[in-house]
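Memo to structure team: turn this sequence into C-alpha coordinates by end of day. - J.P.
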Amino acid sequence: MRHALQGGLALALLALGATAKIEVDISQAAITILAVMVVPFDGLGSAGKAVSKRLLHRMLGCLLGGGLAAILLLVSQESLWLTLAGVALGVLIGRHLENGALGIGYLGMQFALAFLVVMVPDHYDHIDPVAGMARLGGILLGFLVLEPVYWISTWLIRRLSSSIT
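Reply from structure team:
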Protein backbone atom coordinates (compact mmCIF):
# COMPACT_ATOMS: atom_id res chain seq x y z
CA MET A 1 0.00 0.00 0.00
CA ARG A 2 2.87 2.38 0.82
CA HIS A 3 4.36 1.78 -2.60
CA ALA A 4 1.08 2.53 -4.40
CA LEU A 5 0.55 5.68 -2.33
CA GLN A 6 4.03 6.99 -3.16
CA GLY A 7 3.48 6.51 -6.89
CA GLY A 8 -0.02 7.96 -6.72
CA LEU A 9 1.15 11.01 -4.77
CA ALA A 10 3.93 11.68 -7.29
CA LEU A 11 1.43 11.43 -10.18
CA ALA A 12 -1.01 13.71 -8.35
CA LEU A 13 1.70 16.34 -7.81
CA LEU A 14 2.64 16.05 -11.47
CA ALA A 15 -0.99 16.58 -12.46
CA LEU A 16 -1.22 19.66 -10.22
CA GLY A 17 1.83 21.11 -11.91
CA ALA A 18 0.68 20.21 -15.44
CA THR A 19 -0.93 23.63 -15.91
CA ALA A 20 2.41 25.39 -15.42
CA LYS A 21 3.89 26.94 -18.53
CA ILE A 22 6.92 24.68 -18.92
CA GLU A 23 8.24 23.41 -22.20
CA VAL A 24 8.53 19.71 -21.37
CA ASP A 25 6.49 16.67 -22.32
CA ILE A 26 4.37 15.97 -19.22
CA SER A 27 3.38 12.54 -20.53
CA GLN A 28 7.05 11.49 -20.39
CA ALA A 29 7.17 12.59 -16.76
CA ALA A 30 4.16 10.40 -15.94
CA ILE A 31 5.68 7.45 -17.81
CA THR A 32 8.90 7.88 -15.85
CA ILE A 33 7.05 7.79 -12.52
CA LEU A 34 5.04 4.73 -13.52
CA ALA A 35 8.03 2.85 -14.96
CA VAL A 36 10.13 3.34 -11.84
CA MET A 37 7.35 2.37 -9.47
CA VAL A 38 6.45 -0.85 -11.28
CA VAL A 39 7.92 -3.64 -9.19
CA PRO A 40 7.21 -7.32 -9.86
CA PHE A 41 4.75 -8.83 -7.39
CA ASP A 42 7.37 -11.17 -5.92
CA GLY A 43 9.65 -8.16 -5.28
CA LEU A 44 7.16 -6.25 -3.14
CA GLY A 45 8.63 -7.62 0.08
CA SER A 46 11.80 -5.68 -0.72
CA ALA A 47 10.06 -2.94 -2.70
CA GLY A 48 12.13 -0.15 -1.13
CA LYS A 49 15.40 -1.70 -2.23
CA ALA A 50 14.02 -2.57 -5.67
CA VAL A 51 12.63 0.93 -6.26
CA SER A 52 15.86 2.59 -5.08
CA LYS A 53 17.87 0.50 -7.54
CA ARG A 54 15.35 1.14 -10.33
CA LEU A 55 15.43 4.88 -9.62
CA LEU A 56 19.21 4.95 -9.89
CA HIS A 57 19.39 2.74 -12.98
CA ARG A 58 16.55 4.53 -14.75
CA MET A 59 18.01 7.93 -13.97
CA LEU A 60 21.51 7.00 -15.13
CA GLY A 61 20.24 5.18 -18.20
CA CYS A 62 17.94 8.03 -19.17
CA LEU A 63 20.59 10.69 -18.63
CA LEU A 64 23.19 8.78 -20.62
CA GLY A 65 20.86 7.69 -23.42
CA GLY A 66 18.99 10.97 -23.62
CA GLY A 67 22.22 12.95 -23.44
CA LEU A 68 23.80 10.97 -26.28
CA ALA A 69 20.63 11.38 -28.35
CA ALA A 70 20.61 15.13 -27.72
CA ILE A 71 24.22 15.42 -28.89
CA LEU A 72 23.53 13.32 -31.98
CA LEU A 73 20.41 15.34 -32.80
CA LEU A 74 22.42 18.54 -32.70
CA VAL A 75 25.31 17.06 -34.71
CA SER A 76 23.06 15.49 -37.36
CA GLN A 77 21.61 18.92 -38.19
CA GLU A 78 18.30 17.39 -39.26
CA SER A 79 19.90 15.01 -41.78
CA LEU A 80 17.70 11.93 -42.15
CA TRP A 81 20.63 9.59 -42.85
CA LEU A 82 22.70 10.81 -39.92
CA THR A 83 19.63 10.58 -37.68
CA LEU A 84 18.97 6.99 -38.75
CA ALA A 85 22.64 6.07 -38.24
CA GLY A 86 22.45 7.68 -34.80
CA VAL A 87 19.36 5.63 -33.94
CA ALA A 88 21.17 2.43 -34.91
CA LEU A 89 24.19 3.41 -32.81
CA GLY A 90 22.11 4.23 -29.74
CA VAL A 91 20.10 1.02 -29.93
CA LEU A 92 23.33 -0.97 -30.37
CA ILE A 93 24.86 0.61 -27.24
CA GLY A 94 21.67 0.25 -25.19
CA ARG A 95 21.14 -3.39 -26.12
CA HIS A 96 24.81 -4.18 -25.44
CA LEU A 97 24.46 -2.70 -21.94
CA GLU A 98 21.17 -4.51 -21.39
CA ASN A 99 22.40 -7.95 -22.46
CA GLY A 100 26.05 -7.67 -21.46
CA ALA A 101 27.85 -9.24 -18.54
CA LEU A 102 28.00 -6.02 -16.50
CA GLY A 103 24.79 -6.75 -14.57
CA ILE A 104 23.17 -3.44 -15.54
CA GLY A 105 20.41 -4.76 -17.77
CA TYR A 106 17.76 -2.33 -16.54
CA LEU A 107 20.14 0.61 -16.99
CA GLY A 108 20.82 -0.54 -20.56
CA MET A 109 17.13 -0.88 -21.29
CA GLN A 110 16.49 2.63 -19.95
CA PHE A 111 19.42 3.95 -21.98
CA ALA A 112 17.88 2.52 -25.16
CA LEU A 113 14.36 3.71 -24.32
CA ALA A 114 15.38 7.27 -23.44
CA PHE A 115 17.65 7.37 -26.46
CA LEU A 116 14.74 6.43 -28.73
CA VAL A 117 12.30 8.79 -27.01
CA VAL A 118 14.65 11.72 -27.60
CA MET A 119 16.20 10.71 -30.93
CA VAL A 120 13.25 9.44 -32.96
CA PRO A 121 11.43 12.44 -34.45
CA ASP A 122 7.68 12.93 -34.59
CA HIS A 123 7.97 13.32 -38.38
CA TYR A 124 10.94 12.35 -40.53
CA ASP A 125 10.19 15.13 -43.03
CA HIS A 126 10.96 17.65 -40.27
CA ILE A 127 13.43 16.45 -37.64
CA ASP A 128 13.00 18.83 -34.72
CA PRO A 129 15.64 18.67 -31.97
CA VAL A 130 13.47 20.90 -29.76
CA ALA A 131 10.75 18.20 -29.58
CA GLY A 132 13.37 15.65 -28.51
CA MET A 133 14.62 18.00 -25.82
CA ALA A 134 11.03 18.50 -24.58
CA ARG A 135 10.65 14.73 -24.24
CA LEU A 136 13.97 14.48 -22.37
CA GLY A 137 12.83 17.35 -20.14
CA GLY A 138 9.68 15.39 -19.35
CA ILE A 139 11.72 12.36 -18.28
CA LEU A 140 13.83 14.56 -16.02
CA LEU A 141 10.71 16.23 -14.59
CA GLY A 142 9.40 12.80 -13.64
CA PHE A 143 12.54 12.24 -11.57
CA LEU A 144 12.31 15.69 -10.01
CA VAL A 145 8.77 14.95 -8.82
CA LEU A 146 9.21 11.30 -7.81
CA GLU A 147 12.54 11.43 -5.99
CA PRO A 148 11.52 13.85 -3.20
CA VAL A 149 8.12 12.18 -2.78
CA TYR A 150 9.72 8.76 -2.51
CA TRP A 151 12.55 9.70 -0.13
CA ILE A 152 10.53 12.01 2.13
CA SER A 153 7.63 9.57 2.46
CA THR A 154 10.03 6.68 3.15
CA TRP A 155 11.76 8.74 5.84
CA LEU A 156 8.43 9.77 7.41
CA ILE A 157 7.13 6.20 7.47
CA ARG A 158 10.32 4.93 9.13
CA ARG A 159 10.22 7.74 11.66
CA LEU A 160 6.56 7.14 12.49
CA SER A 161 6.99 3.39 12.78
CA SER A 162 10.01 3.76 15.09
CA SER A 163 8.12 6.16 17.37
CA ILE A 164 5.20 3.72 17.63
CA THR A 165 7.36 0.78 18.72
